[in-house]
From TrEMBL:
PANTHER family: STAGE 0 SPORULATION PROTEIN A HOMOLOG (PTHR37299:SF1), TRANSCRIPTIONAL REGULATOR-RELATED (PTHR37299)
Domain of life (superkingdom): Bacteria
Protein name: PAS domain-containing protein
UniProt region (Disordered), positions on chain: 1-29
């Protein structure tokens, strides 16, 4: 573990009356009673918009409407034994374990417990006050239990895996009533390549609040661990680019290299042209830095990449191909993928266009569609905003954060990732027009050409709100709009 972690103080050593309500309970404070009333209404099936912090309310919606978590659950289930450990995460878990053990010593006098989980919410270790640990074990807050939001509802560990940054869950903010006497704060550690959670660290305290300093401490502590993840991402990109340079002379057609997340890290001139990029793009020379990598606008590519990684992990000399359209309305082009392997782990793929070699990709049959979401959930300031799809003009991605342009202003989507938002909104007439933009076709007011022939959509004629259209999406967009 690199970096310096500041001392941890989660609460005064001697608990004061301010930590508890008049009845000696977290649930008897006035703010907790308001949250408890909202929880009762929400759990009964009503919709709630105020009185609960937006990140907590978004979690309640997931627990009730997506995961169907039993709110009467009082013991966390055991983790599935087949839960897969992500690539090369032993170093990360070792660093977090050392951090958890150090923090556990610091919080013993405050009656708190420190836990570390993997990216699936499986508890890997627990440290802290022995009495608090025994009480936590009554709820199976112990190693090899599952505290993902999907299994155990709103809690510091599971909810932190669903969002970026630190999250606190206090008293009746927990989805399961049996946990309403706990206060906890957690934060996830995320893979800089894929954006997926790798692990989390959490501090829990029975029947007493946590210091406001805890989230800042968690943020600093995690930044120290994430330095190792960043270092690994750079190391892996260097390996992938080396293999790309070594093999590129064998291909006269479009040839590119991608990282584990499907982001392009290197491409030859033919691939740069096929992907609609300029010659100045960093991937022409090799993008070592994660921020310089580029996600191709190829429909279905993300699913093919996941398939290829899974197949190649079992046999590192594997190769396979898929046929994918390079743009809306275009004929499919074959794409052969071969893994780049380091220490028996797949760290990227070499991709040759117009080639069919190895195992063919078969698109999995779509699962039976469930009920469409009743609304799109957004967050603004201290409120959770419930939006009808018709209110949204377009969605814009800022890496994994998605911003919704609406009649009520610019609102952050509670769902991370533009692909996930696209799946929610496509049934309502939304279409991808750019790698960063998804538009409501019913809300397009005007089309405008730029001085170099670029195409822009004007979504609000009053404010001249522009959305760029990428070259590959322009023909299909014109067809859909009938122009």
């Amino acid at each position: 573990m690199t970096g310096t972690v500041p001392p941890l103080a989660i609460a005064p050593s001697r608990r004061s009356g301010r930590d508890r309500g008049p009845g000696g309970s977290l649930v008897t404070t006035s703010s907790a009673r308001e949250v408890a009333r909202a929880w009762e209404s929400f759990a009964a099936g009503e919709d709630v918009e105020t009185g609960v912090r937006p990140e907590i309310l978004a979690s309640w919606y997931r627990c009730r409407d997506r995961y169907d978590v039993d709110r009467t659950l009082d013991v966390a289930p055991g983790a599935r034994s087949e839960a897969a450990e992500r690539i090369d995460n032993g170093v990360i878990f070792t660093a977090l374990g050392g951090l958890g053990a150090l923090a556990g010593k610091e919080v013993e006098r405050d009656g708190a417990v420190v836990t570390v989980t993997d990216g699936d919410g499986r508890v890997l270790g627990s440290w802290g006050d022995p009495t608090a640990q025994r009480r936590a074990e009554l709820h199976n807050l112990a190693p090899w239990s599952s505290w993902s939001e999907q299994c155990t509802g709103t809690n510091g560990m599971g909810t932190s895996l669903e969002m970026s940054g630190p999250v606190t869950v206090t008293g009746p903010e927990h989805w399961c009533e049996a946990f309403h006497q706990w206060a906890c704060a957690g934060i996830s550690i995320r893979d800089v390549v894929t954006g997926s959670p790798v692990a989390s660290i959490n501090i829990s305290r029975w029947n007493a609040s946590l210091s406001e300093l805890v989230p800042a401490w968690l943020t600093t502590a995690v930044a120290c661990v994430e330095q190792e993840i960043y270092r690994r991402a750079v190391y892996e990109a260097d390996k992938v680019i080396f293999e790309f340079n070594r093999k590129s002379a064998q291909f006269s057609g479009p040839f590119m290299a991608i990282d584990r997340g499907g982001n392009v890290v290197a491409a030859n001139e033919a691939a740069v042209s096929l992907l609609g990029l300029t010659g100045e793009t960093p991937i022409a020379a090799g993008a070592i830095e994660p921020a310089q990598r580029w996600m191709p606008e190829i429909s279905g590519l993300s699913g093919v990449v996941r398939w290829a990684k899974d197949r190649a992990q079992a046999a590192t000399d594997w190769s396979g191909y898929a046929c994918l359209p390079m743009g809306p309305g275009e004929d499919a082009t074959s794409l052969t993928m071969r893994p780049v392997v380091d220490a028996n782990h797949v760290v990227g793929m070499l991709c040759a266009f117009g080639v069919q070699e190895g195992e063919p990709y078969e698109s999995p049959s779509e699962a039976a569609a469930g009920p469409l979401p009743r609304r799109v959930i957004g967050m603004r300031n201290d409120r959770l905003v419930l939006l009808a799809p018709s209110e949204i003009r377009y969605a814009e991605a800022d890496r994994n954060i998605v911003w919704l342009s609406t009649e009520r202003g610019r609102i952050q989507a509670a769902t991370r990732g533009l692909e996930n938002v696209e799946r929610l909104l496509t049934p309502y007439g939304f279409s991808r027009v750019h790698r960063r933009f998804l538009v409501n076709l019913r809300r397009v007011a005007e089309l405008e050409r730029g001085i170099k022939g670029e195409l822009f959509l004007i979504m609000d004629s009053r404010s001249h709100e522009f959305v760029p259209v990428s070259r590959r999406h322009a023909p299909e967009l014109r067809r859909m709009l009938g122009v």
